Structure formats: C-alpha cells, structure tokens
Amino acid sequence: MTDTKNTPPTFGRYPILDRVTLPADMRNLSVDQLRQLADELRAETVDAVSTTGGHLGASLGVVELTVALHSVFNTPDDRIIWDVGHQAYPHKILTGRRDRIRTLRQPEGLSGFTRRAESEYDPFGAAHSSTSISAGLGMAVAHHLRAEDDPSYSERNVIAVIGDGSISAGMAYEAMNNAAVAGPGANRLIVVLNDNEMSIAPPVGSMSNYLSRLLSSRQFFNLRDLAGKFAKRLPSKIERTAKRAEEYARGIITGGTLFEELGFYYIGPVNGHDMNQLVPILRNLRDADDQGPILLHIQTEKGHGYKPAEAAGDKYHAVNKFNVATGEQKKAPAGPPSYTSIFSRELMRRAATDERLITVTAAMPSGTGLSDFAHKYPTRFFDVGIAEQHAVTFAAGIASEGLRPVCAIYSTFLQRAYDQVVHDVALQNLPVRFAIDRAGLVGADGATHAGSFDLNYLCCLPNMVVMAPADEIELLHATATACEYDDGPIAFRYPRGSGEGLTLPEQGEVLPIGKGRIVKESNVTPNQKSGVAILSLGPRLNESLRAAEELAAQGLSVTVADARFAKPIDTDLVETLAKRHDVFITLEEGAIGGFSSLVVQHLAETALLDGVKFRPMAFPDKYIDHNTPAAQYEEAGLTAPHIVKSALSALGNAPTSEKQA
After folding, report:
1. 410-433: buried (b, 16+ CB within 10 Å) or exposed (e) per residue?
2. Which CATH number characterizes residue 642's domain?
3. CA-CA distance, 102 to 390, in Å (whole number)?
4. In the prediction, which pLDDT does 201 show?
5. What per-residue confidence (pLDDT) applies to 512?
C-alpha cells in the first residue's frame, strides 16, 4: 500500500517526475525523457505556486536548465548556486522537497529562497542578488586547496546561475575580475548567465547553437590547447597576437568579448529551453580539463511554458495564489492603501511644484512606489539597476550640485550600500533623502528581506536624521519633511503592507526636526511620579495604545508618546517621561541597540536612569523566520500583551499565573 502521508497531490499525474526523488534518479534518462521531465516539472511548479503564491516567472524560465544541470552534474558534490533564489523552485522539487513544496513561504514551511539549513543541495543561501559568482569562486578555490592536501578528495564543479539583471551589479564583475587571477582553483567554475530580458546578445539561432556546441567540445579544447602550445614556441609578441586573434575571432562570432576580457572562456548564446543543446554543452563543460573559468550564456523567457505568465508584462515575477486554468490571481479584500502608495502620493504632489526633486531606485521602481513618478517625470527618475552602492553615491553626486535626490530602497537592500551611506553621504553631510521601504518584519519573505537593522546602522552616524512614522498620516508628514530638509542626509522608514485606514489630509506637514508628540496623557499631575510611560517609535503605536488601555483597566496611569524621530531623539520629551513615571518603556521595530540605545544613553548622561525603571523592547537577538506578519511580531514580543507584561514585571505586579509558575 502506498504511503500517502507525504505524497504530493499531483502524484500519478506525472510519470517521470514521480520516479525522481533525488537528482541521481535522472542520470540514466535519455534527452527525450529529460524533455518530458521538464514539461512535468513545469506543470508541478505552476500547480504548487498556485496554492502558495511566490516568485513564479523566474522559476518557469529555468526549468530546462534545472533538469539539465542536475542530470549532468553530480550534485550535491558538484555545487549549483542559484543567484537570488527566485528561480530555485524547480530545483527544490527535484532535490527531495517535492512533498513539501506546497509549504513554500508558509509558516514552518520551505523558504522562498535557497537555504543551507534546508538541504545539502542548497550549498549557499541566496536572497539578495549578485552573490553567486563570488561564493562559487570561493567554493571552487576551497575544493582545489582541499584536493591538494588530500589525494582522496576529488575536485568538484561549481556552477553559478545568475540572471542578466543580477549581473548588472558591481559585485558580479568584481568576482569575475578576480576569477581570472584566482589560480587553478577557478578552473572548475562555470557561470551560467541566464539572459531573460535584456537582450544583450544577438538572437539565438541554429548557427549560434552549433557554434556553442563546437566551442564547448573536447575536440575544440584540445585543438585550442595544441595551438596554445605551438604559439608558446613563437616569439612573445607573435604569441600574444595569436592568442588575441583567437579570442577576438570567438568574440566576433558569439558576442562574448566583454567576458573574454574579464578572463572567462565564453560560450553562447544558447537556447535555454532546448534540451538537445543544453545537455551536450553541459556535458562538454563538465568533462573539460582546466579550461575555466567558463561563462555559458543562455537565453530564456520568464514564465516560459505557462501562457498566462508569458502574456503578463512582468512574466508573473511575483504572484498571489491563482487559478491554474485561467491564471487569474486571487485578490485580497480591498483595504486601506499601502504605505508605499502613500509615500508615492505625497512625493508626486511635491514634485509638481519642486523641480529639484529627483528620484533614484535600484531596479525596484514598482516595489518602491516610483512607477508613477517615472511615467510623469522621466527625466527626473533614475533606475540604476541592481546596484545599490552606485545608487547611493549617484544620489550623493546629485545632492552635491544642489538638487534634492530621493533614494528609495528597501531596508534590507540598503545594507548593501552601507559604506556609501557613511563615506559618500553622511561624512560629507550631503542632503540625500532615503525612503526606506519594507522596514520591520515582512512576512513570507522572511529574515532575508526583513528591515531589522536600519535603525542600528543609521542612528550611529553623525549628521544623519532618522524618522519612523507611526501610521499613514505620519508618513505623509515624514515624506514632506524629508523633501524640504536640506541641512544633511535624512531617512524615513515605513513598513510593508497597508496602513491603518485613517482619513488622510490633503498634504503632509513639515515637522520640526527631532520633536515627538504625546498621544495619550496620563492623569498624573506634573509634580507626581507614578505609572508607566511608553515611548513608541514607528507603527507599534497602536499596540502601545492597546497596552495602555489594559494597564489603565488595572488602575495604572499610562502616558503614550510617539517618538517620530529615532535621531535626533526628543530629549525634552524623554526627560519629561522619565521624571514623571516609575516605568519607562521604549518600543521599536528593529534590532537591539537602535533607538533605545540613544534614549538610555541620554538618561544615563542626565542621571535620570537612576530614578526610573527603564525597559527597552526591540526585536530579539535572532533571525525571525518567514510567517505571517502577525505571528512574526508575536514571536518578536512586540504586541500589546508583551508590553503589558513588561510594565507589570517592572512594577513587581506580574500576573498571578506567572507568580505561581
């Protein structure tokens, strides 16, 4: 009897896929069987993602490549690194995770990205782009060094699959530049450039496919090696000329001169959906001796093989749950506008009267809410590609000439440009405005995309102003304030998702820098010292107010304040709260050591810390896995019940159940 406990719901529908539990099961299949496996794998991927949502288009584009790689190379000993990880869903299905693929991005389920802790077939975690070549080169060098020390250790192939968007980042070129001089360890590095949008090479045709197979063949490598040995017997000037002639001849045929100049042996472009081409070329590369590093250029189509995805403008890059037959995505119930759209609204309003406002993003115009700006003000909008470091310094250059750049970047991606924020912006006190989206915890994308650290890495910088609006109205004010602030760099952070549903004013107000506000006043007279003060930074304000209601129901006086600014802190407000209350709680959606550290530093310097029970509340010292946002904040301990518990514990009034425990 078949054990159906972990059987995929599609089991029995796909005869070849049902026989593949691990990649080793694929290695005796014919090319025709591999082609059928790819068709079945594509259908299984579509069916799975229709139930979970996720990044579908990129995965559909690499189905044939995934099958070819795992059938040709000896994974997991040979390493396959999927840059970003958006394209790794078919890889997960083929590597022992088909029975769990419908837990993708769900609580306690599979990650939406590659993850070392999840499988030995995921040799490197990847959720930020453009890291694969660097990691792959490191692995290849390590394998070579181990093989030199241990004769029983065989060197492994390392394959880095990187998209044409990801290879626009400087880090990819740094890695390729280093690969050319990294020594014999780099010989087993193969970079697969998955070109699915940018059309950076001539169209794929039968002639280029033929040439790619020829250039990757052992016969050509042997002929090239023989020619090289002959050339070495020639005078050095002629030898250099012969080598350059061979490289440029292949460059003219294939268009790979750039990669050749970086030290890679270039092959391509190849039709990435043609198994008859992929399998023999990959076998040739697997069996080639000391010819690396190699770059194989394939061309694919995002969403390939699923008509609704092929017809979509974004090729179904990221989707909600959807109907497989029609492609119609399930829409969430209508709710309040998103924080991103509210930022966009105020920015557009101000741009209409301020021609100095310039926007910069790093390949995320839609995600950061700049699409409308790009459409209406195309000459004032700059998408620099996946190049956050360049984006920040580019904005610094704009600011240095008297314009007002708004650099819109997700919190997790701004981490990649930290040196530029420090050296090129803050040190020079240039008025770059950082609109930091996806601050705090982000749900299904998990720890890799959480905005956990921006308060820490920005608040420590001299000259930096940092705002954290509590709701959508406050975001309007923060956007307006940043647009008008010319005295130095300023950042404002806001979460993913919808606002509170508040009625918005016509426009944002310019706030006084470094001033917070009292939202709920306690009933304690100014000369008394009693009760609890809660100083909230950012969208936890509602939880603070709920906690205040519960504490008030227990007879405690509570003051709730909205800090508005993480830096500079409102020292007058901080001192007032400390002087008038027995317990002082700070609350922030960030890692330990952010906003609260500035507050406690001031309390210590003014000796007010000696007279108040200070309790900072921030994210715990761990990475919080993907889940629903509500569950993540519960795990983080930043909900109203946690605030109440912290206040009562500080007062010595722990709940009865805890005292008994």
Report:
1. bbbbbbbbbebbbebbbeeebbbb
2. 3.40.50.920
3. 38
4. 40
5. 98
Please say whether the beta carbons of 436 and 491 come within 8 A.
Answer: yes
- Nearest CA to 563 out of 451, 445, 440, 455 is that of 455
Q: Which residues are catalytic?
A: 302, 388, 416
User: 614 and 471: one domain?
Assistant: no
Encode burial over 104-127: b for 16+ CB neighbours within 10 A, e otherwise.
bbbeebbbbbbbeebbebbbbbbb
302 and 155 inside one domain: yes
Query: Packing angle between helix 339-351 and helix 472-484, nearest 10 degrees?
Result: 40
pLDDT on residue 214: 53
Helix or strand (DSSP H, E) at 617? strand 613-617
Annotation: binding site for thiamine diphosphate: 86, 127-129, 165-166, 196, 306, 388
Q: Which residues of the chain have pLDDT under 70?
A: 1-5, 197-257, 290, 313-316, 654-661
Cβ(179)–Cβ(186) below 8 Å? yes
Please state the three-class secondary structure of 587-608 as a single string: ECCCCCCCHHHHHHHHHHHCCH
Q: Which domain holds residue 546?
A: 517-651
Q: Are 588 and 540 in contact (CB under 8 A)?
A: yes
Percent helix / strand / coil, the chain, rounded to 5? 45, 15, 40
> What is the pLDDT of the chain when averaged over all its residues?
88
Same domain, 522 and 488: no
* pTM (predicted TM-score): 0.86
